[in-house]
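The instructor's notes for this session suggest beginning with a concrete chain rather than abstract definitions. Hand out the sequence below and ask the class to guess, before any prediction is shown, which regions might be ordered.
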Amino acid sequence: MDWTKDYFDDIYLKYFLLAQKEERTKEQVDFIEKFLEKDSYILDAGCGIGRHSIELAKRGYKVLGIDTSPIYIKVANETKSQLKLENASFDVMDMRELSFENTFDAIINMWSSFGYFDDGTNEHILRLFFQALKKNGFLIIDIENRDYLLKYFIRETFKEREDGIFILERRKFNPVTSVVSTHRYIVGPNIRKDYLRHIRIYSLTEMINIFKQVGFSKLEYYGNYNFEKFHVDSERILIIGFK
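After discussion, reveal the predicted structure:
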Protein backbone atom coordinates (compact mmCIF):
# COMPACT_ATOMS: atom_id res chain seq x y z
CA MET A 1 0.00 0.00 0.00
CA ASP A 2 1.26 3.47 -0.94
CA TRP A 3 0.89 5.51 2.26
CA THR A 4 2.01 8.72 0.56
CA LYS A 5 -1.32 9.18 -1.28
CA ASP A 6 -3.25 10.01 1.89
CA TYR A 7 -0.45 11.40 4.05
CA PHE A 8 0.46 14.56 2.16
CA ASP A 9 -2.79 16.50 2.38
CA ASP A 10 -3.93 20.01 3.32
CA ILE A 11 -3.39 19.31 7.03
CA TYR A 12 0.25 18.37 6.44
CA LEU A 13 0.51 21.52 4.33
CA LYS A 14 -0.73 23.72 7.16
CA TYR A 15 1.16 22.26 10.10
CA PHE A 16 4.38 20.98 8.53
CA LEU A 17 5.12 22.68 5.20
CA LEU A 18 3.93 26.25 5.72
CA ALA A 19 5.51 26.16 9.20
CA GLN A 20 9.06 25.91 7.77
CA LYS A 21 11.08 29.04 8.41
CA GLU A 22 12.58 31.03 5.54
CA GLU A 23 15.96 31.12 7.29
CA ARG A 24 16.15 27.31 7.21
CA THR A 25 15.30 27.24 3.51
CA LYS A 26 18.00 29.79 2.73
CA GLU A 27 20.56 27.82 4.73
CA GLN A 28 19.72 24.66 2.80
CA VAL A 29 19.87 26.45 -0.55
CA ASP A 30 23.20 28.02 0.41
CA PHE A 31 24.52 24.45 0.74
CA ILE A 32 23.12 23.42 -2.65
CA GLU A 33 24.47 26.52 -4.35
CA LYS A 34 28.06 25.64 -3.41
CA PHE A 35 27.91 22.87 -6.03
CA LEU A 36 26.10 24.76 -8.79
CA GLU A 37 27.47 26.38 -11.90
CA LYS A 38 25.93 29.52 -13.36
CA ASP A 39 22.86 28.81 -15.54
CA SER A 40 22.36 25.34 -14.05
CA TYR A 41 19.06 23.59 -14.74
CA ILE A 42 17.84 21.87 -11.55
CA LEU A 43 15.21 19.22 -10.85
CA ASP A 44 13.68 19.48 -7.38
CA ALA A 45 12.21 15.99 -6.90
CA GLY A 46 9.63 15.85 -4.14
CA CYS A 47 9.47 19.64 -4.08
CA GLY A 48 6.40 19.99 -1.86
CA ILE A 49 5.27 23.62 -2.04
CA GLY A 50 8.53 24.53 -3.78
CA ARG A 51 10.41 26.29 -1.01
CA HIS A 52 13.84 25.22 -2.34
CA SER A 53 12.83 25.69 -5.99
CA ILE A 54 11.51 29.19 -5.35
CA GLU A 55 14.66 30.25 -3.50
CA LEU A 56 16.88 28.80 -6.25
CA ALA A 57 14.85 30.60 -8.90
CA LYS A 58 15.20 33.85 -6.98
CA ARG A 59 18.96 33.37 -7.25
CA GLY A 60 18.77 33.04 -11.02
CA TYR A 61 18.72 29.27 -11.61
CA LYS A 62 16.25 27.47 -13.85
CA VAL A 63 14.24 24.96 -11.82
CA LEU A 64 11.62 22.29 -12.39
CA GLY A 65 9.84 21.23 -9.21
CA ILE A 66 7.84 17.99 -9.18
CA ASP A 67 5.60 16.41 -6.58
CA THR A 68 2.74 13.91 -6.54
CA SER A 69 0.46 16.30 -4.63
CA PRO A 70 -1.71 18.57 -6.82
CA ILE A 71 -2.40 20.67 -3.71
CA TYR A 72 1.27 21.45 -3.15
CA ILE A 73 2.01 22.06 -6.83
CA LYS A 74 -0.90 24.53 -6.92
CA VAL A 75 0.61 26.43 -3.97
CA ALA A 76 4.05 26.42 -5.63
CA ASN A 77 2.64 27.76 -8.89
CA GLU A 78 0.73 30.49 -7.04
CA THR A 79 3.93 31.57 -5.26
CA LYS A 80 5.84 31.53 -8.54
CA SER A 81 3.19 33.73 -10.16
CA GLN A 82 3.12 36.18 -7.26
CA LEU A 83 6.91 36.56 -7.46
CA LYS A 84 6.88 36.60 -11.29
CA LEU A 85 9.55 33.91 -11.52
CA GLU A 86 9.68 32.83 -15.15
CA ASN A 87 12.65 30.50 -14.53
CA ALA A 88 10.67 28.17 -12.25
CA SER A 89 8.04 25.63 -13.25
CA PHE A 90 6.08 23.06 -11.27
CA ASP A 91 4.34 19.86 -12.37
CA VAL A 92 2.50 16.98 -10.75
CA MET A 93 4.83 14.05 -11.35
CA ASP A 94 5.88 10.83 -9.60
CA MET A 95 9.63 10.41 -9.20
CA ARG A 96 9.14 6.66 -9.70
CA GLU A 97 8.09 7.37 -13.29
CA LEU A 98 10.68 9.89 -14.49
CA SER A 99 11.58 9.64 -18.18
CA PHE A 100 14.21 12.38 -18.49
CA GLU A 101 17.58 11.60 -20.05
CA ASN A 102 20.69 13.79 -19.81
CA THR A 103 18.51 16.80 -18.98
CA PHE A 104 19.54 18.34 -15.66
CA ASP A 105 22.77 19.78 -14.30
CA ALA A 106 21.61 18.96 -10.78
CA ILE A 107 18.87 17.04 -8.99
CA ILE A 108 17.94 17.74 -5.39
CA ASN A 109 15.87 15.52 -3.10
CA MET A 110 15.61 17.39 0.16
CA TRP A 111 14.39 17.08 3.72
CA SER A 112 13.78 13.33 3.99
CA SER A 113 11.97 12.89 0.68
CA PHE A 114 13.76 9.58 0.01
CA GLY A 115 13.05 6.13 1.45
CA TYR A 116 9.28 6.13 1.06
CA PHE A 117 9.15 2.76 -0.69
CA ASP A 118 10.73 -0.70 -0.64
CA ASP A 119 14.46 -1.11 -1.30
CA GLY A 120 13.99 -2.06 -4.94
CA THR A 121 11.83 0.97 -5.68
CA ASN A 122 14.14 3.34 -3.80
CA GLU A 123 17.09 2.10 -5.86
CA HIS A 124 15.00 2.39 -9.04
CA ILE A 125 14.38 6.06 -8.23
CA LEU A 126 18.12 6.64 -7.89
CA ARG A 127 18.70 5.02 -11.29
CA LEU A 128 16.11 7.35 -12.83
CA PHE A 129 17.85 10.32 -11.21
CA PHE A 130 21.18 9.16 -12.62
CA GLN A 131 19.64 8.78 -16.09
CA ALA A 132 18.13 12.28 -15.91
CA LEU A 133 21.45 13.97 -15.13
CA LYS A 134 23.81 15.38 -17.72
CA LYS A 135 27.41 14.19 -17.70
CA ASN A 136 29.20 15.77 -14.72
CA GLY A 137 25.84 16.59 -13.18
CA PHE A 138 25.17 15.80 -9.54
CA LEU A 139 22.49 14.52 -7.18
CA ILE A 140 22.01 15.74 -3.59
CA ILE A 141 19.96 13.66 -1.19
CA ASP A 142 19.24 14.87 2.33
CA ILE A 143 17.91 12.30 4.82
CA GLU A 144 18.00 11.44 8.51
CA ASN A 145 21.04 9.52 9.72
CA ARG A 146 20.02 6.01 10.75
CA ASP A 147 22.75 5.74 13.41
CA TYR A 148 21.71 8.99 15.09
CA LEU A 149 18.02 8.25 14.89
CA LEU A 150 18.39 4.86 16.57
CA LYS A 151 20.83 6.08 19.21
CA TYR A 152 18.41 8.82 20.26
CA PHE A 153 15.18 7.13 19.19
CA ILE A 154 12.06 9.02 20.32
CA ARG A 155 9.09 6.70 20.62
CA GLU A 156 6.45 9.34 21.29
CA THR A 157 5.99 13.09 20.97
CA PHE A 158 3.04 15.28 21.89
CA LYS A 159 2.60 18.89 20.78
CA GLU A 160 -0.11 21.50 21.18
CA ARG A 161 -0.46 24.13 18.48
CA GLU A 162 -1.57 27.71 19.09
CA ASP A 163 -4.93 27.05 17.42
CA GLY A 164 -5.81 24.29 19.88
CA ILE A 165 -4.74 21.39 17.67
CA PHE A 166 -2.94 18.49 19.36
CA ILE A 167 -0.44 16.35 17.43
CA LEU A 168 0.60 12.99 18.85
CA GLU A 169 3.20 10.81 17.13
CA ARG A 170 4.06 7.23 18.07
CA ARG A 171 7.03 5.56 16.36
CA LYS A 172 8.24 2.00 15.95
CA PHE A 173 11.44 0.71 14.37
CA ASN A 174 11.61 -2.61 12.50
CA PRO A 175 15.21 -3.89 12.78
CA VAL A 176 14.71 -6.37 9.92
CA THR A 177 13.48 -3.89 7.30
CA SER A 178 15.09 -0.78 8.82
CA VAL A 179 11.75 1.00 8.50
CA VAL A 180 10.46 3.56 10.99
CA SER A 181 6.67 3.54 11.16
CA THR A 182 4.98 6.61 12.59
CA HIS A 183 1.35 6.79 13.62
CA ARG A 184 0.34 10.45 13.77
CA TYR A 185 -2.88 11.59 15.46
CA ILE A 186 -4.24 15.11 14.92
CA VAL A 187 -7.05 16.11 17.24
CA GLY A 188 -8.79 19.42 17.88
CA PRO A 189 -12.00 21.39 17.43
CA ASN A 190 -13.90 19.81 14.53
CA ILE A 191 -10.97 17.60 13.53
CA ARG A 192 -9.82 14.09 14.31
CA LYS A 193 -7.50 12.39 11.83
CA ASP A 194 -4.73 9.87 11.97
CA TYR A 195 -2.00 8.96 9.50
CA LEU A 196 0.53 6.19 9.00
CA ARG A 197 3.98 6.82 7.57
CA HIS A 198 6.63 4.20 6.77
CA ILE A 199 10.15 5.42 5.94
CA ARG A 200 13.15 3.23 5.18
CA ILE A 201 16.06 4.83 7.02
CA TYR A 202 19.60 4.37 5.75
CA SER A 203 23.09 4.43 7.15
CA LEU A 204 25.75 6.37 5.28
CA THR A 205 27.41 3.06 4.32
CA GLU A 206 24.19 1.87 2.68
CA MET A 207 23.76 5.13 0.78
CA ILE A 208 27.34 5.06 -0.46
CA ASN A 209 26.89 1.50 -1.73
CA ILE A 210 23.62 2.30 -3.53
CA PHE A 211 25.06 5.43 -5.14
CA LYS A 212 28.01 3.40 -6.41
CA GLN A 213 25.78 0.59 -7.71
CA VAL A 214 23.70 3.10 -9.64
CA GLY A 215 26.81 4.50 -11.30
CA PHE A 216 27.89 7.67 -9.51
CA SER A 217 31.64 7.95 -9.90
CA LYS A 218 32.47 10.50 -7.20
CA LEU A 219 30.82 11.00 -3.83
CA GLU A 220 30.88 13.61 -1.07
CA TYR A 221 28.98 13.48 2.22
CA TYR A 222 28.46 15.77 5.17
CA GLY A 223 26.70 15.77 8.53
CA ASN A 224 24.88 19.08 8.17
CA TYR A 225 24.38 22.14 5.96
CA ASN A 226 27.53 23.76 7.32
CA PHE A 227 29.68 21.13 5.60
CA GLU A 228 30.55 19.52 8.93
CA LYS A 229 32.37 16.20 8.57
CA PHE A 230 29.95 13.29 8.91
CA HIS A 231 30.12 11.32 12.17
CA VAL A 232 27.92 8.85 14.04
CA ASP A 233 26.11 11.65 15.89
CA SER A 234 25.33 13.66 12.77
CA GLU A 235 21.56 14.15 12.68
CA ARG A 236 21.42 14.07 8.90
CA ILE A 237 23.15 12.58 5.88
CA LEU A 238 23.81 14.94 3.00
CA ILE A 239 25.24 12.85 0.20
CA ILE A 240 26.27 14.19 -3.19
CA GLY A 241 26.89 11.93 -6.17
CA PHE A 242 28.55 13.16 -9.37
CA LYS A 243 27.83 11.50 -12.73
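Then share the key points. The helical segments are 4-7, 10-17, 22-33, 51-58, 70-83, 119-132, 146-151, 204-214. The chain has eight helices and eleven strands.
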